[in-house]
Structures are given as C-alpha cells and as structure tokens.
Specification:
By secondary structure, this protein is α/β, with parallel strands linked by helices. Helices cover 36% and strands 13% of the residues. It has one domain: Rossmann fold, CATH 3.40.50.
Length: 228
C-alpha cells in the first residue's frame, strides 16, 4: 500500500479527506498540530475521530503560535468575529487567518513524509476557503509542491515526485458534506467552530455558519451541539 501523510484537524474537511484517502487504498499516517489555538477542543475531537479509521500512525505535534499571535485563533485579545450569515465575510482576509499556518503545517507534514518514505501529502483545503485564506489557494499548493521537490532528499532522489493532494479543492462546503455523508463519515465527532465553549460550537462565527449552511444544502441536520 502507498503511504499517505494527512494533515488532520478535528474539523469536517480533514476527516472527509481521510475517508477519501482510505477509499483510494492508502495506508494512513495522520499528523495533527497543536499550535496553542483558541479552539483546542479540536484536538480531543481528532483523537475521537481517528479511532473510527484504520490509521497506521497518528502524531500530534506541539508548537506555540501564541508566541507570534496576529490572529483571533492565537491571540485571546483579538475577538473572533460573529456574523448573521455565511456570506457576510465577503472576500476579505479575516482576523481568523493565522499567518503562514498552512506553510508551517505542510512543512511538518513534509518532514514526516520524508521520514516514513511517503511522497503523498493530503490537506483539506477547499473552494469555500480560498477566497479568504491565501494559503488555501491552488497556486499556493503548486508552489509548495515545487519547493518540496527541490528541498528534500526524497524529492530529488525518488522515482516518484512529492505530491500535495487537495481532493476537496474544487468543492464547496456543501459538496464536501455530501461526499462525506456518502462515505459514511460520522460528523458528530468533529468540530469546526473558531470560538467554542467546551464542546459547544458558537453557531455565529464564519466557520459555524458555513458548516450549518452545508448541512442545510444536503437536507441534513448537523449532529454536533451549538450554543445558539
């Protein structure tokens, strides 16, 4: 079996990616990042979700992006914005953007892939994200992939080049949920909220509103609990 390194958060997107990779007959090596984020309940959700899949290895890497701050997810002095609708954010880069986050995460995944001899790295970025988050865009992923093949021993010596897989990149959140439901993904073991209280999602941050709308589009009820 080919080995896949998958960046796994406690959210709906990365769990859907994991289900897709398993369907593609990859052996799964999951990596999660504890970056001292505000919504660190997602780490508990990761551990819960992972149990339901055949995962060869799961690593949680601890780094502290609170030392840098600059985002509502890493600086408790910056409030997470609340909205009435998922459309309210427009195409601006919001304060929930974490500077260079996907570059940092993919760098760890790249190092892990090199160690286990994998040339396949999966990430759960998608079309709904890349309007607001520049490190979720196709041109960014292509640039990182090019760098990965220039900067690693496995990249310059392997007969197979390193590939950054983003199977959700052309999907909306509604299409992602539709895909996951067909694959039998248990979304009750995930959380997307930027500003949760314990395991309750706020229901009014952008991530919550996008998620709720996605389930609505699929005539389904989101199985997680919300404050509102």
């Amino acid at each position: 079996m080919k080995k896949a390194v998958i960046l796994v958060s406690g959210g709906a997107d990365s769990i859907t990616v994991m289900a897709l990779a398993l369907q593609m007959n990859y052996e799964i090596y999951a990596i999660s990042i504890n970056y001292s984020q505000r919504n660190n309940i997602e780490l508990e959700k990761i551990k819960e979700s992972i149990k339901t899949y055949k995962v060869k290895q799961h690593k949680i890497i601890n780094i502290d992006l609170q030392e840098l701050g600059g985002s509502a997810l890493t600086d408790n002095e910056i409030k997470v914005p609340k909205y009435n609708s998922s459309q309210d954010i427009g195409d601006e880069i919001p304060v929930t953007y974490v500077p260079a986050r996907n570059t940092i995460f993919l760098s760890y995944a790249l190092g892990y892939a090199e160690i286990i001899g994998s040339t396949d790295i999966f990430i759960g970025v998608h079309a709904t994200d890349y309007a607001n988050y520049p490190d979720c865009r196709p041109e960014y992923l292509k640039a990182f992939e090019k760098m990965a093949n220039l900067a690693t021993a496995i990249g310059i010596s392997s007969e197979h080049s390193i590939k950054i897989h983003a199977p959700l990149i052309n999907m909306t959140k509604g299409q992602i949920i539709a895909t996951g439901l067909k694959l039998g993904v248990d979304y009750s073991k995930t959380i997307s909220c930027y500003d949760p209280e314990d395991d309750l999602s706020c229901g009014t941050c952008h991530a919550c509103l996008v998620r709720l709308k996605a389930f609505e589009e699929n005539n389904s009820v989101d199985p997680i609990r919300y404050i509102k």
